C-alpha cells in the first residue's frame, strides 16, 4: 500500500492569539523591529499577500480543497511564526502558548484524519517550556514549533536543557522555523530578510545545536528543520574542517558536524532540485520530509512536483513524499 503524501510544513493563522496581545506593552516595539528588518517595500507586498490567503490559513474546508488540488493527504499544521511573540512576559507568554495550542488543536480536529498540529512554547522563558510542551501534547498535538533563537538566547543555552530532555522523553516533534533575522537592516531590501535571512537563521540555529553537544546529550530528539536546514547541509564541509582543524570549534561535540545531519530531519522546501538532491545525499533519504510552507508565497504551490523535479530514485521519492513522515508521526 502506498504511503499517504504528508506535508510537514503548513501554517494556520490564529486570531485568538493576536486578540490577546493587541495593545500590550512590547507589541509595538516588536512590530517596529520587524518593520525595520523587512523594509517598507517588502511590507507593502506582504500585507496584501497574507490577507489574500486568510481563507486558506483559517478555514478548514478551504484548506482541504487546496490540499486535494496539491495531491496532499495529510498536513502537519503549525502556527504562523508571527504568533511567537517572544517579547511577552511570563504570564502573557503562558497564555499565548495556551491559546495557540488549543486553537491549533481545534483547527485540526475539524479533519483529524488529514490534519495534525504543532503548538508553541515560550522560547524567551526556558523555565516555562516543558510545561507548555506538555500542554501541547495534552491537546493531541504532535509537538511544538520553535524559532532559531529568542532575544538574548541561542539554542545552545544551557537553560534549554530541561526542555530538550522533556521533548526527548515524550517523543515530541520539534519544528525549527525561524522568524526574523538578526542581520536586521542589512537585509531590508529586495526581501533579503527572507531569502537570505531564513536560511541563515536555520544554519546558525542548527550549528548551535550541533557544536554545543545538544544532539550528543539528547540523541533521541525529533527535530525537523524548515527550509531544508538553510545553508548548513550544503556547506557542512566547512564545519567539518573547522571541527578537525581548530580546538575551539571541536571542543563541544563528539563527532564530525556532518554526522549530525543524519540525526535531524529536514523539509524539502529548498526551491532548487539540485539543492534538494544534495540535501538528500548529505542527510540521507530517510531524513527529508515533504514541505510546502502552505499557503505563503515563499512556499511551493505543488510540493510533489517540486520533489519529482529532483529526479530521486523512486524509493527515495516515495520516502520523502510521505513514507518518512508517516514513520515519524507514528510516535506511539
Automatic annotation (TrEMBL):
Keyword field contains Lyase: yes
Full protein name: Amidohydrolase
Gene Ontology annotations for the cellular component aspect, listed alphabetically: cytoplasm
GO biological process, one term: secondary metabolic process
Keywords: Lyase
Ubl conjugation keyword on record: no
Name of a matching Pfam family: Amidohydro_2
Occurrences of domain Amidohydrolase-related (ranges): 6-330
Alphabetized GO MF terms: carboxy-lyase activity; hydrolase activity
UniProt organism field: Streptomyces fumanus
Stored InterPro entries: ACMSD, Amidohydro-rel, Metal_Hydrolase
Amino acid at each position: 500500500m502506498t504511503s499517504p503524501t504528508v506535508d510537514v510544513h503548513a501554517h494556520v493563522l490564529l486570531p485568538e492569539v493576536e486578540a490577546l496581545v493587541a495593545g500590550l506593552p512590547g507589541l509595538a516595539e516588536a512590530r517596529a523591529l520587524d518593520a525595520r528588518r523587512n523594509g517598507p517595500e517588502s511590507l507593502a507586498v506582504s500585507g496584501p499577500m497574507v490577507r489574500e490567503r486568510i481563507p486558506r490559513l483559517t478555514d478548514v474546508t478551504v484548506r482541504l480543497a487546496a490540499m486535494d488540488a496539491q495531491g496532499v493527504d495529510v498536513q502537519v499544521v503549525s502556527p504562523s511564526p508571527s504568533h511567537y511573540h517572544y517579547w511577552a512576559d511570563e504570564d502573557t507568554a503562558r497564555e499565548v502558548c495556551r491559546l495557540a495550542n488549543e486553537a491549533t488543536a481545534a483547527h485540526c480536529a475539524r479533519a483529524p484524519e488529514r490534519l495534525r498540529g504543532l503548538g508553541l512554547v515560550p522560547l524567551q522563558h526556558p523555565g516555562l517550556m516543558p510545561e507548555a510542551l506538555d500542554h501541547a501534547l495534552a491537546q493531541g498535538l504532535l509537538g511544538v514549533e520553535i524559532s532559531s533563537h529568542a532575544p538574548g538566547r541561542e539554542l545552545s543555552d544551557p537553560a534549554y536543557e530541561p526542555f530538550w530532555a522533556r521533548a526527548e522523553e515524550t517523543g515530541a516533534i520539534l519544528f525549527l522555523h525561524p522568524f526574523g533575522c538578526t542581520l536586521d537592516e542589512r537585509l531590508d531590501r529586495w526581501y533579503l530578510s527572507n531569502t537570505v535571512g531564513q536560511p541563515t537563521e536555520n544554519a546558525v540555529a542548527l550549528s548551535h545545536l550541533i557544536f554545543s553537544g545538544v544532539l550528543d546529550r539528547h540523541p533521541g530528539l525529533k527535530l525537523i528543520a524548515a527550509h531544508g536546514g538553510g545553508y548548513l547541509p550544503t556547506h557542512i564541509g566547512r564545519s567539518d574542517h573547522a571541527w578537525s582543524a581548530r580546538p575551539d570549534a571541536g571542543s563541544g561535540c563528539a563527532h564530525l558536524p556532518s554526522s549530525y545531519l543524519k540525526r535531524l530531519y529536514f523539509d524539502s522546501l529548498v526551491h532548487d532540485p539540485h539543492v534538494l538532491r544534495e540535501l538528500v545525499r548529505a542527510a540521507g533519504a530517510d531524513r527529508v520530509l515533504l514541505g510546502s510552507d502552505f499557503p505563503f508565497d515563499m512556499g511551493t504551490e505543488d510540493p510533489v512536483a517540486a520533489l519529482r523535479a529532483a529526479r530521486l530514485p523512486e524509493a527515495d521519492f516515495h520516502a520523502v513524499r510521505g513514507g518518512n513522515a508517516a514513520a515519524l508521526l507514528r510516535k506511539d
